Each structure stands twice: as structure tokens, then as C-alpha cells.
Amino acid sequence: MSKGQLPRWVDFGLLPAINLIAAFLVSGLVVILIGENPLEAVKWLVWGALGYGEGVGFTLFYATNFIFTGLAVAVAFHAGLFNIGGEGQAYVGGLGVALACLAMDQFVPWYVTLPMAIIGGAAFGAGWAFIPAYLQAKRGSHIVITTIMFNFIASSLMVYLLANVLRPTGSMQPSTRGFEEGGQLPLLRHLFPAFDLGQSPVNLALFVALIACVLVWVLIWRTKLGYEIRTFGANPNAAVYAGISPVRITVVTMLISGALAGLMGINEVMGAQARLLLDFTAGYGFVGIAVALMGRGHPIGIILASILFGMLYQGGAELAFEIPTITRDMIVVIQALVILFAGALEHMFRPAVVAFFDRFAGAKAVA
Amino acid sequence: MLDVIILVLDSTLRLSTPLLFACLAGLFSERSGIVDIGLEGKMLGGAFAAGAVAYWTQDPWLGLLAAIFVSVLLALIHGFASITNRGNQVVAGVAINFLAAGLTVLLGQAWFAQGGRTPQLDMDWRFSPITLPFAESIQNVPFIGPIYADLLSGHNILVYAAFVAVPLTWWVVFRTRFGLRLRAVGESPQAVDTAGISVAWLRYRAVIICGALCGFAGAYLAIAQSAGFIKDMSAGKGFIALAALIFAKWKPVNAMFACLLFGFLDAVANLMQGQSIPGVGEVPVQFFQALPYILTVVLLAGFIGRAIPPKASGIPYVKERT
Fold this sequence. Notes:
The complex is a heterodimer. Chain A is mainly alpha-helical. Chain A has a single domain (24-366), classed as ABC transporter involved in vitamin B12 uptake, BtuC (Orthogonal Bundle), CATH 1.10.3470. Chain A has helices at residues 8-34, 38-50, 53-78, 86-104, 110-139, 143-165, 188-191, 205-222, 224-234, 236-241, 246-262, 264-273, 284-294, 299-322, 329-344, 350-366. In chain A, helix 4 runs parallel beside helix 6 (143-165). Chain B is mainly α. Helix content of chain B is 68%, strand content 1%. Chain B has twelve helices and two strands. A two-stranded antiparallel ribbon of chain B has the order 1-2.
């Protein structure tokens, strides 16, 4: 190990942990500022997330959303692309899922609908990512800006569609009709009655998410395309000299990223709500950024980070119930601090840790 | 007819003001090479500070000061991450946005217990409309009278401040030594560094100005346009301002026109709600809401002119390789 380098466990374990602890410490300060006891808050948060069956179910349910959006951001990151459009892609992807369910739910059982819903969600999510990707690759417009713009365009588009096109006649609510049984994923509490999951909406989409994790791992680290994606992300110029087409990699990577974000609809639309609701994405697309940064772009890291954020979302609800001065917005603050410390300030603690390990390594060499 | 036009243009001015402040804020930051997608968050944080302090002190000016203070604080976090720690500027901006979105509601609920709002402000605790001199006396002069009395007169001081800030920004950026260096550091920080000028300090100053201007935008939302802070009241205006900045190709006067255009679209959208255009039918209001974003995407794609950002924007400056 040469000077200035860190062992893998430090890079992928210790440093993220330090960043996370810093984020939580600052969150604790915020709780003190409000005038509550941070330890009390942590107690309710953990109890709410893991203390009983229904809490665990909700934690896993939220985690499923975050796995999809986290993978979406991570895949793009590997190609050096920052996809902030996960929110919009998930929203439009939800439309794809809903259309598949609306078309098939009255005629076939759910396991026939599911593959079509997956294709629908992935295709619509990928489609929404295509234009920013193409414009970045061909016309040089910056993908960060275009994906932000597309989030807003998606929001306007979906409001229009839900209020004017998809809303059943006579209904006042801007949503589609509820899906029949053929358009609903089985809930885990029905499939595994032995586990106590309360009334939680965790459903089969959890397994779809885990399969997606495996596929992403295979794609990024075990295929030619994944190698090209990583090469392009590490050094676009070298990639071009190696004969990798920047246009192809940018577009393909963003299509995969958008498709993954779009699959979030499987969990929310087909699994939990059984209808397409206004703003069903509720910022989960943005949580994906925090999840991907914390999980260091690796599926295992993303699963762990997703569970952590699932705990925050579910535990945060419990916390807001027990200590009403700490509203659920606390989660947004924690999320912001995680993005700040694990993302923007990732280099802050690094020099100190490197210095520490260099001294340690030096001492060992002398001995 | 003139009435309707004046009505629309009047609300265009009101709606463009926060965009203009935020857009000029972004201009300073981006001209120095710091990409700022945290305009939205700084504006929101400023709006909350303005609403809270104006309520406590019953003074809009102290509210404005508080807005500037909080917004600059958020800008310094952005600066610390992206200048000192050479972090990813986009990621830092995202963090700022969420920090503001979460903290404002959390603290608002803890302090005021009104669902994240700040309490309603009295008329004299806000910036109130100013009647320009002679507005009453020339009101009856045809054409010029209504334009002067109804369109230009009767706004609060921040609206006028925003439009005064445009030539001021132009002067600072294009006619002062600081402005020259600011533009240089956004194009080629190495050159600035070689000339013996601190890249970091220059960029920090740009980020602080950016924060101050976002504070004005936030204060306008909370204590001039409305009577208090409301959850998520910036509602994407920071991003529209960012779009306007790109639309304006990072130039102050263009920025004013871009903000007026986007403000005009907003005003028309409000007016057109539920009405139909002859020959076209009813245009959904969502179309007008999405139009600034669509226009920006089209512009960025290079179909109407070319928008080229400062060359060094988004790239952290590394003085020497280790």
C-alpha cells in the first residue's frame, strides 16, 4: 500500500461511516435547537422503524423505492453523469406501469400483468431520460440542467394527464381509477402470514428491486458494456481513444438509469396504491441521490443505504407522532446533511484519515 | 384593451422580481466558476428568515437583513464544500435545497406551530407599495398616464431594487477590476492564480454576493409579495431563475429580459386559466407552467442560438497536484 492510499475497507466502510456520523451529529444539533432531546428522538426513530412488525414492513416498503432510485443515480454516476431527473423519470415511469395495469387488470392475473408493467415502467422512465441524454451526447447541453428541467416538465405533464385525461368521469380526485386484482402486486403480509408485517404495503416489488440490484452488479462489473461505462466515467478522453463511442455510452447509460427510476412505479403504483396518484413520487427520486452517494454506487451499499433511509422515513413518521415538534421534515434535513457530508464534503475528512493511516503504516514499517 | 395589457404587465413585473434577484445571484456565482443549483434553497431559507424576523421585530428591514444573513450562510456552506473542499458543486447545491426545504418547515413548526408557516404579518411590517411622484396628477393623461400610474408606480421598494440591480450588476461585472477578475476566474482560474490573485477568495466573494441577492429574492417572497412565509413558497422559482440565467447567456441585461419573459409567461398563465384562445381552444395552464423549462431545454440544445457557460464552471480548482 503506497502513501496516500487507503485500504479498501477504509474507503468503502470507515469514510462513509465517518461522513454519516457527522451528518447525524449535525441532525442532533438541529433537534437540540428545537428544544428536544436527540437521544429520545433516536429512540423513537429506531423503535418506529424496527420495533414492531408493521414498522419493519413500512421500512422495507420505503427501502424498495430507494433501491430503484438509488440504482438509477448510481448507474449514471458510473458513467460520470449526474442524473438529477430520477424524480421525473419515476413519475413518468409510474404512468407506464399504470397504463399496463389499466389495460390488463380486468382480464389476466397479476403475474401476467407484472412483466408488462415492468416493461411499461422501464420504457417510460427510459423514454423520459432519453431526450436529456441525447441532448447531452449530441448537442452538448448539460445533463444536470436538462434533467432538472425535465422534472418540472414531467410534473406539469402528469398534472395535465391526471386531471384531464386519466381521471375517471365523475371523480373529483386527480388520479386514475383503482386497479382490479389483476393489476395489484401481492402484499408480503398475505404471502407470508407467518411474519407479522401489520398493515404495511411492502410487496413483491421488493424482490424485483433485489433482482435489479443483482442485474446492475452484473452489468457494471461483469459485462463489456459495464466496463465501457466505467471507463467512460473514469476518463472520457481515454474512452474515446479506446474506441468507445461517447454518444452511445451516454445514451445507453441514461436509458438504463431512467428505466431503473421508472421501475419505482412497480412498488408505489402497482404494489401499494393500486392507482396512479398525483405526486406519488413524493421526492423519492431525490432520495436516490443520497442513497447512491452513501452506497458508493455499489448495489450492496445501495441496499444498506436504502434500508437506512427506509428506517428514517418510517421512523420519522413515528417520531413526528410521539414528539410533535419534530415533524417529518426532519427526514428531509437528515437527507440534506447526508448528501452534504457523503457527497459534497466527501473529501473533508479524507486528509486526516490518510495522515492517520500513513503514520500507522510508517510505524509498522519501522517495527 | 390597454387595461388588460397593463394588468398583465403589472403582474409580470411582480412575478419577475424574485426571478431577477435570483438570476443575478446565479450570475455572480456562475461567472466565478461555481455552478449553483442551490438558488432555490437559498431563496427559501431567506424567505423563512424574513418572515420570522419581520414578525418578531415588526420591521421589514430587519426581515430583509435576516434573509440576507441566512441566505449568505447557506451560500457559505456551498462555498465551503465546493471551494475549500473541492466537492461536487451540483451535489452541494442539491444538499442546500433540501436543507432549506426541511429546516424552514421544521423550525417553522417548532417555533410558530402553524404547519410550517410564519404568522401573518400586518401591513406595516411588510414592504408596502410606493406611489411614484406625480402618479396621481398625470393618471388622466391618455396612454402615458395609466402606464406611469398603474404599471410603473405602486410597487414595493424591492421591485425597484431588482431593476436597479441590473445596471449595477452590469457595471460591477464589466466595468470594475473585481468584475474583470470575477469573469477571469470563471474562464481560467490558472491565469488568475498565476497573476497572484487568490482564486478561493475571489470565488468566496462571488458566492457571498450570490447569497445576498438570493436573500433579497426570499425577502420579496415572504414580506413583500405575501404576508409571511409559507411552506415551499419558492416553488421552483430558483430553478426558473437558473433557466433564465442560461437563457440570458450569463449576461445581466439579457437576464432582465429573460426574467421578464418568464414572469410574463406566468402572468399569462394566471390570466388564461380556464379561458380559451380563439382558433386554438383552451390551452392547459400546465403548458404555460412548463414553457420556461421547455424553452430552456430547446435553447440549451442549441436550436435558438448557443448558450455557452463560463469555461471553468463546475470544475473545482486544484492549485497543484499532489
